[in-house]
Amino acid sequence: MLFGFCKVLQWFFGISAIGFLNLLFLGMSPITGQEVMDTTPAGELKRLRQDLLRNYEMNVRPFKNVNQEVRVLIYYDVRHILELNVHSIRECSSFPCPHLRARSAPEPLR
């Protein structure tokens, strides 16, 4: 009985220590998609739009396969980027782009 209690106690302290170290060293706050859109320069959005149109079929959800690379999910409002036209991007000389700041939060990709 005592041995089982000690094992549970070890697990509890181990998980607590990992959580504490995570908060201490890795306590980075995640940014939202809107913050990413607000801080991305217009030229970068234009390049991203071209890449999305060129490699549309390659943008997939993350997966892990031993024989292939790990791909990541793009945290941009893809629909909005694809709707951007060159004229509105050239108008954006200020940083961050006021066109993007007025948008609502992006919808999650499905």
From TrEMBL:
<feature type="transmembrane region" description="Helical">
    <location>
        <begin position="12"/>
        <end position="31"/>
    </location>
</feature>
<keyword id="KW-0812">Transmembrane</keyword>
<protein>
    <submittedName>
        <fullName>Neur_chan_LBD domain-containing protein</fullName>
    </submittedName>
</protein>
<keyword id="KW-1133">Transmembrane helix</keyword>
<keyword id="KW-0472">Membrane</keyword>
